[in-house]
Design brief:
With 343 residues, the chain is α+β, with helices and mostly antiparallel strands. It contains 12 helices and 9 strands. The chain binds zinc ion.
């Protein structure tokens, strides 16, 4: 084929026509091959440029390259046009409106059962005028033992296998009772506190025992406080916490820091007090308590001739287990969401 600018004009007219007539992408692809491919019309024309007289060659070359660019642009433009038409022609049902895709659900946590139980206990006692007092988890021997009438060599120390720190005679507190002493040292009656927090004992771990657990201690010191005030307080707490139908049972007990000392049990909610596998003969022990020993008051710089008071202590873990029917204390510290999600 002889090549000249007129040929290129004919190629251009033909190409424009065919491109604008192309109705689908396959046709456009074929056109690109026919026009710009290795054996395409324009490629052939470019190849023939070499045979032109020198004075025509550069003008024809420029024209051919411009045409090549134009064809490429027209092919791309027609492709976009076809795509636009295709989208506009889509039936409504084929549309996916991304603004209607629901957002990914946010996984929401909730309070741990121990925290829930403590929140409820705190609320109950705050209705009776108690405030929350906290103390150190690393204690000295005096506050953990001696000030609570547990001198060195006292058999009560054997009941609590303690974690001692390597230096200075410090230990991880075995109970929250030292908070009583610390609070009395700093405050004069009337005193109404609950002291929640972790305590530590070197226990063999089983379904009912852990080496770390939580206690809630209570202390009330005022003028003219009697055992009946303590019993009434336990009854109010038990019914608020476990249900108005619950009964309480008071029995004698012994603690070095209270005199007299009692143990309190609440009637079992599962068997209504007739006895079942979850209770002991219809009763569930919930706390130890008693009238504060005069020497303990004196250790707290409070005059036992003028003031009297009562103290009580309960295991927060046990209260949560009773409240939510949890059979194994270890589950409370496993952080297994499948378990925690139930509460
Ligand atoms: Zn029962």
């Amino acid at each position: 084929m002889s090549v000249n600018v007129g040929n290129l004009d004919a190629i251009a007219v033909d190409a424009r026509q065919r491109i604008s007539a192309a109705a689908d992408e396959a046709t456009l692809n074929q056109l690109r091959i026919d026009l710009l491919g290795k054996k395409g019309v324009l490629t052939g024309a470019l190849r023939g440029l070499g045979s032109l007289p020198a004075d025509q060659r550069s003008a024809a070359g420029a024209r051919a390259n411009a045409l090549k660019t134009e064809i490429d642009q027209r092919l791309n433009a027609r492709r976009q046009e076809l795509e636009q038409n295709r989208l506009q022609g889509l039936a409504d049902s084929e549309w996916v409106d991304v603004t209607f895709i629901p957002e990914a659900a946010v996984s929401r946590g909730h309070l741990h059962p121990l925290t829930q139980a403590l929140t409820e206990i705190t609320a109950i006692f705050s209705r009776l005028g108690y405030e929350v007092a906290l103390g150190p988890e690393v204690e000295d021997d005096y506050h953990n033992f001696q000030a609570l009438n547990i001198p060195e060599g006292h058999p009560a120390r054997d009941e609590w296998d303690s974690f001692y720190l390597a230096q200075g005679g410090w230990l991880l507190r075995t109970h929250t009772s030292p908070v009583q002493i610390r609070f009395m040292e700093a405050h004069q009656p009337p005193i109404r506190i609950i002291a929640p927090g972790p305590v530590y004992r070197h226990e063999a771990t089983d379904a009912g025992h852990e080496s770390q657990f939580h206690q809630v201690e209570g202390l009330l010191v005022e003028e003219d406080i009697r055992m009946s005030d303590l019993v009434g307080t336990i009854e109010y707490f038990s019914r608020s916490m476990f249900g108005a139908e619950r009964r309480i049972r008071i029995s004698g007990d012994h603690f070095p820091f209270t005199e007299p000392s009692i143990g309190a049990a609440v009637s079992c909610g599962i068997c209504q007090g007739t006895g079942c596998g979850s209770c002991k003969g219809g009763w569930l022990e919930i706390m130890g308590a008693g009238m504060v020993h005069p020497q303990v008051l004196r250790n707290g710089r409070i005059d036992p001739e003028r003031y009297s008071g009562f103290a009580f202590g309960m295991g927060l873990d046990r209260i949560a287990m009773l409240k939510y029917n949890i059979a194994d204390i270890r589950r409370l510290r496993e952080s297994d969401v499948r378990f925690l999600r139930q509460f």
